[in-house]
Amino acid sequence: MENELDRLSRNFLSGSEGKKISGKKADIERIAASADGERVRSMLEAGGFEDAVRRGDTGALRASLEQVMKTESGARLVKNLKALMDKK
Fold first, then answer.
1. Angle at the Cα of 71 (from 66 to 74), degrees rounded to 5?
2. Is the dihedral of CA 1, 6, 23, 32 positive or negative?
3. pLDDT tens track for 42-77
4. Of 2, 32, 57, 80, which has the fewest beta carbons less than 10 angstroms from its beta carbon?
């Protein structure tokens, strides 16, 4: 049975914003591989993010992301991703 996260992600990726993201895959991968990206990944792993994804626990996912975004690394990562997405 499909969980809510699967459904939401599939719906998003099939829309215009999802297609825009797909076209910037290499840039997103570069940002994710940065020092900030690695720090954020470590924080998410330590916080049980992957387990929350498997369970489809959107509340836990939201809480984890909000916590990470309060850090300097998380804020910079989000800023870089936002700048990338604002580019035409």
1. 70
2. negative
3. 999 999 999 998 888 999 999 999 999 999 999 999
4. 2
